[in-house]
Write a structure and sequence with these properties.
276 residues, 72% helix, TerB-like, 0% strand, Helix Hairpins, 3 domains, mainly alpha
């Protein structure tokens, strides 16, 4: 829960600087409100700076987002009671924003897909918190190389595979995969350290082609029946939902869909070849 600690530190410092900041006593509320409004202007920038200091590029993005949300809370724009997030969910938010911005337009279908995903997997309260954060992150510049490098350094490989699977779902939420979106996804896969075979396997789960079943299993159509069977065993092990069980039940359920794609690809090949 590295980023959770970072967030708490950021929010604590911002709170102490702006909400509990000592000053001259005032006989009325107007001066106090005025003083806070002036100081709150800098909350997002201090949040971003603290975020970078404690958590690198991802911490900076989310520190800025939290700072901005603090400003809005102080101005009465919306109420917020805090969030609890794992490293996976934080990375998911940042990379989701990068994919949504890839073609220069944040599409309603993509945003609706993200909302449904958060609502289904994390519940109403946490979904609302994540969407608020996502909206703020979308306004920031995302340096994919730095963010991807940080995720690669601290996140295990199965979790990175699961991230990529979700990101393809975001990109295809409107029913089509734009060239710019594919380019962004390819870049993310590289920065996350995914092998080309693993990236193409996940891509084949969403972009259906004649040989998609073989690509999902990471084998050539000319592979022998024994090679097909071995490939399925290897992929079933690699994509088994238990590989990401440490990320919580929500992510585990999402991973099951990826596992089902592997099984479906194997069943398709068996049927075509008459393998028992």
């Amino acid at each position: 829960m590295k980023y959770l600690i970072i967030f708490l530190l950021i929010m604590l410092v911002v709170y102490l600087l702006f909400y509990r900041s000592p000053g001259k006593k005032s006989t009325g509320n107007e001066k106090l409100v005025s003083r806070r409004k002036g100081k709150n202007t800098y909350a997002k920038w201090i949040g971003g700076t603290l975020g970078w200091a404690f958590g690198g590029p991802i911490g900076a993005l989310l520190g800025f987002a939290f700072g901005k949300m603090y400003e809005d809370m102080s101005a009465g724009t919306y109420a917020h009671e805090g969030t609890q997030q794992s490293d996976f969910n934080v990375s998911l938010l940042v990379l989701t924003a990068a994919v949504m911005k890839a073609d220069g337009v944040v599409k309603r279908a993509e945003l609706d897909f993200v909302k449904r995903f958060f609502l289904t997997n994390f519940g109403k309260e946490r979904a609302e918190q994540y969407v608020l954060m996502l909206r703020e992150i979308l306004k920031q510049e995302i340096r994919l190389a730095e963010v991807g490098g940080q995720i690669r350094q601290f996140m295990d490989y199965p979790s990175r595979l699961q991230l990529m699977h979700y990101l393809f779902g975001v990109a295809l939420a409107d029913g089509q995969l734009a060239a710019t979106e594919l380019q962004t996804l390819t870049s993310i896969g590289g920065y996350l350290g995914l092998s080309p075979a693993d990236f193409n396997s996940i891509k084949a789960m969403f972009v259906k082609e004649v040989d998609s079943a073989y690509k999902i299993l990471e084998i050539d159509p000319n592979a022998s029946d024994e090679e097909v069977k071995k490939a399925y065993r290897d992929m079933a092990f690699k994509y088994h939902p238990d590989k990401v069980s440490h990320l919580g039940e929500e992510v585990h359920r999402s991973a099951e869909k990826k596992f089902q794609e592997v099984s479906a690809a194997y069943d398709q090949i068996k049927k075509q070849r008459g393998i028992k």
